[in-house]
């Protein structure tokens, strides 16, 4: 079984933290004997645009082709324009780069699996039609909750892409409901799994881990892990320091456009620390070194880092958005309102002083995560979906 995995994010040696959840699921599929090739088109901006707009200057060049953990990954360039997801779509340019890569690399899959309706899904729609291949689309979050509302053009392409796929998967129930509301088409819920075998208690104490990571040992630590953007609630989290004890520090692990503004915070390098992007293998260290993991996002799909934190039985503060409530099951009452500093401060103080995440609650959340979100379990389900889709399509052709 040969699968072509099309996505806009996938790890590389230069950027090991980008799209780790894709790599985790791909690795689980490979262990089941599925042959996966990844094409991850890279936006390339004109020289003039890169000169005028600093954010479009690439810091590191990613190779066109590389092998990572046994998987061949292609990164073909396509011409990108500023703000294209708002007023247009790069689907045709991406599709052209994918088709050329398939031709040059003699890539002949049995099925295409595209991730995110926009822009990868739109490109996959064109590629599948050209190659006469069956294809599956997975919806992740922003492609349903944000991009379709940019413009009438964006919404039209979103609807067109969802209806064109042979099968649509959604990483959570709320995402499935939202997609059906927007398009009228139903989808199957199948989360991208997490390699939970990597998230286990450590032999080191919390103090020892702090010392190894050179973190303030005398502080209670709140950790944020993710892309540093306003929509992730990073400014509300930084603002909460004003109402928290001086014994509390916040670590921001990750990179993004909000980094520069966070570095201007009055408590920067005293109680607010920017750790930068770290390898995925080190995420568990930062979670185990912390007293609370916080992700006060405005919108989410199915955040894998929340799954990882719950697997380590770390108290989690998260907003009641997207598919997050599904991760908490009957304990969703522990979620807070988005864009609310007061709600965030109240819950932080509760956890730091009289933790509502009792051993019983943590054990139940742990069992819920192990049962539903393990990458190996979900890979078995995904392989069965591939098999049924390929057999169904080709039996129809015959």
Mean pLDDT, all residues: 90
Q: Helix segment count?
A: 17
Q: What would you call the structural class?
A: alpha/beta
The neighbouring-strand order within the major sheet is 4-5-2-1-7-8-9-10
Account of the 3D structure:
With 398 residues, this protein is an alpha/beta fold. It is 42% helix and 16% strand. Strands 4-5-2-1-7-8-9-10 form an 8-stranded mixed beta sheet, with helices on both faces. A 5-stranded parallel beta sheet has the order 13-12-11-14-15, with helices on both faces. Strand 12, helix 11 and strand 13 form a beta-alpha-beta unit. Helix 1 crosses helix 17 (375-397), helix 4 (91-104) crosses helix 5 and helix 5 crosses helix 7 (152-164). It is globular. Mean pLDDT is 90; it is low at 48-53 and 55-59.
